[in-house]
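Kindly review these tokens for lecture notes.

. . .
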Amino acid sequence: MACLLQQWGVCMISRHFGDAVLSTMGMSKRYARMIGVVYFSFFLTSILSQLFFKGLIVRDDAAATATHILTHESSFRLGIALGLIETGLYVALIALFYDLFRPVSRRVSLIAAFFGLVGCAIQASGSVFDLFALALLRSGQAPVHFNAEQLPWLALLFLKMEDQSGSVALVFFAVYCLLIGYLILSSTFLPRFLGALMVLAGVGWLTFLYAPLADHLSPYIEIVGIVAEGLLMLWLLVLGVNAERWQEQALSKLNS
């Protein structure tokens, strides 16, 4: 009798959650397209941020960099602000992807979200170095043991530290891309070639573990990364996901 009651209870729980999954079937395509919209917004703010920064920072020329930043301070500030918005959008994207791929593997989806959020935290904290550089140049006052002529070099040092923090963040994003690629390959509601491209992009970003190699391969890595994430974004934005297969995978997880 106890066994029968236990089976009945399990059946009722399964039926309850099954109905919840069924109710999301019609939403899954719209949900995927919402992810596509957030993804597109991320791409847009990323491009705009780079445009505002373009030409302001001159590699190994502290004086020119300082002049450009002070002359175009509003562009520099807008670049920082858009960079933070870009990071915020990626945080939202990570949360949305966690929900989308939870039926494939909740554990892997959670680990992916962890790596993605750590990457975002590092990237956002890097903006502090940009603000330090700007504050230093605006003040016109050198810290103790430095003279005014060294201010541009100190500012450039902060900017280089921001660049290094971005490279560290890319290593965490590399793992995130690898795991998202794995989840797509293991899913039944998105095409496998998107997963393969994300894995390839993740492998490329991993080269930032060794800066000389990353610098040498940087143009190719960036192309692969942009193509992989760009195609995934467009697929979600235009086509969404296969709602029936998403539901089937969600139900199979529920019954396992």
